[in-house]
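User: Quick sanity check before I run a bigger batch. Here is a single chain. Can you write out its predicted 3D structure?
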Amino acid sequence: MENAPALPRLNEPAPDFTAPTTHGDKSLSDYKGRWLVLFSHPADFTPVCTTEFLGFTKNYDKFQELGCDLLGLSIDSTFSHIAWTRNIKEKFGVDVPFPIIADLSMTVANAYGMVMPGASSTATVRAVFVIDPEGILRAMIYYPLTNGRSIDEVLRLVKALQTTIEHGVATPEGWQPGDKVIVPPPVDVREAEERMNAGYECVDWYFCKKDLD
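Assistant: Done. Predicted structure follows.
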């Protein structure tokens, strides 16, 4: 498709970058050893984006408890970002604790496929990228310009991804810590037969749940 954005691919290294932010220059390598939620917003000083930044800030400590950092981005200048975060502090009493990339060149936005020409050629859509401590891209979520994200869902997704990687399991719809997890499907007939007697909660050979140890 003409002008279609190039998208990064799941379970491969996330596109590298070094970019100016409200906390100085930041590179992807700065976050090695920690989880990272990189997210874009269409523009500073817009109401939907403001609600999202309030939501991310409200949940900041919860992300930190998971060893996960937050990094925002839009095609605005550092000066605009600074003015907007100061305005949020003045008007809403909230101090945004995480950096925001100033991507006037659109270098990072294009590398991550954050610009969707069908929505806007001058603003990033509401994209979310979850990157693991080894710099591997584990999840991508895209929202249109008009609809704000659920920060609770982003937080839940990070928890689910961490559980999946640590325990080698899958998680069902709406999974929360403490819920049963999905046992990966069997790869052959013998394994399918064995799992029916493995003590799992099975509806059928392909659908089994278990508690985490």
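DSSP finds six helices and ten strands in the chain.

User: Great, the batch can go ahead then.
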